[in-house]
Amino acid sequence: MTIRRISSGGQYEAKVGYCRAVVANGFVFVAGTCAQGEIIPKDIVGQCKSALQAIEKALDEAGSNLAHVVRVNYYLPDMSEFELCWPLLVEAFGENPPAATVTECNLITPEDRIEIEVTAVLPD
Description:
It comes from Ruegeria faecimaris. It holds the Pfam family Ribonuc_L-PSP. InterPro entries: RutC-like_sf, YjgF/YER057c/UK114. This is Enamine deaminase RidA, house cleaning of reactive enamine intermediates, YjgF/YER057c/UK114 family. With 124 residues, the chain is of the alpha+beta class. Helices cover 27% and strands 29% of the residues. It has 3 helices and 6 strands, in the order βαββαβαββ. It has helices at residues 11-17, 44-62, 86-93, and strands spanning 3-6, 21-24, 27-33, 69-76, 99-104, 115-121. Strands 1-2-3-6-4-5 form a 6-stranded mixed beta sheet, covered by helices on one side. The longest helix has 19 residues, at 44-62. The two termini are 17 Å apart.
């Protein structure tokens, strides 16, 4: 079995010891992803959009896309904010809804409002 690791070069990859995504056995496993970039939005909607963009980039590099996501996990420090993200998630996954789980928990920094983790398949 061939395993390919995809790094985003993000600061936490080296600190924590992980990579953005791993391609193995026809699957793409994308690590939990928070908002990224030089300017991180303070609101959950902006952070959700940023995380989805980072996930799309990793999936593209792996040879897949959001339409091939089969599992998604959402992690939030405040579950009451999740509904604000629903329109973005319907836009991203609406035509091809994955199995999903939502968990309320602390994230890596207190500023993070959402972390998204996905598993996708490689297209045939």
